[in-house]
């Protein structure tokens, strides 16, 4: 998992919004028709989620360190119904 965190096979996720979305982090509204882009590469390097985010540290995924982590803090193969099929065999 740590290798996939540092080198995600899907470094950018893009979704075209068919309807308005409210961001849960700040309540801002994103209008329909917008292409929303998430940089997985940067998401996996958030210092508030991964201490020393540039360092290879397999301990990042020990149960006690990842138990309270948000489900979408680690999405190397994207997420949701359009995620990479390869995630099932990786």
From TrEMBL:
<dbReference type="GO" id="GO:0020037">
    <property type="term" value="F:heme binding"/>
</dbReference>
<comment type="similarity">
    <text>Belongs to the cytochrome P450 family.</text>
</comment>
<keyword id="KW-0479">Metal-binding</keyword>
<dbReference type="Pfam" id="PF00067">
    <property type="entry name" value="p450"/>
</dbReference>
<dbReference type="InterPro" id="IPR001128">
    <property type="entry name" value="Cyt_P450"/>
</dbReference>
<dbReference type="GO" id="GO:0016705">
    <property type="term" value="F:oxidoreductase activity, acting on paired donors, with incorporation or reduction of molecular oxygen"/>
</dbReference>
<dbReference type="InterPro" id="IPR050196">
    <property type="entry name" value="Cytochrome_P450_Monoox"/>
</dbReference>
<dbReference type="InterPro" id="IPR036396">
    <property type="entry name" value="Cyt_P450_sf"/>
</dbReference>
<keyword id="KW-0349">Heme</keyword>
<dbReference type="GO" id="GO:0004497">
    <property type="term" value="F:monooxygenase activity"/>
</dbReference>
<protein>
    <submittedName>
        <fullName>Cytochrome P450 CYP4G-like protein</fullName>
    </submittedName>
</protein>
<keyword id="KW-0408">Iron</keyword>
<dbReference type="InterPro" id="IPR002401">
    <property type="entry name" value="Cyt_P450_E_grp-I"/>
</dbReference>
<keyword id="KW-0560">Oxidoreductase</keyword>
<keyword id="KW-0503">Monooxygenase</keyword>
<dbReference type="GO" id="GO:0005506">
    <property type="term" value="F:iron ion binding"/>
</dbReference>
<feature type="binding site" description="axial binding residue">
    <location>
        <position position="84"/>
    </location>
    <ligand>
        <name>heme</name>
    </ligand>
</feature>
<dbReference type="InterPro" id="IPR017972">
    <property type="entry name" value="Cyt_P450_CS"/>
</dbReference>
């Amino acid at each position: 998992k740590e290798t996939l965190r540092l080198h995600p096979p899907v470094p950018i996720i893009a979704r075209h919004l068919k309807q308005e979305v409210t961001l849960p982090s700040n309540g801002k509204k994103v209008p329909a028709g917008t292409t929303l882009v998430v940089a997985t590469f940067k998401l996996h390097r958030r210092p508030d989620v991964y201490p020393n985010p540039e360092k290879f540290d397999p301990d990042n995924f020990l149960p006690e360190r990842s138990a309270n982590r948000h489900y979408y803090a680690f999405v190397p193969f994207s997420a949701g119904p359009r995620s990479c099929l390869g995630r099932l065999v990786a």
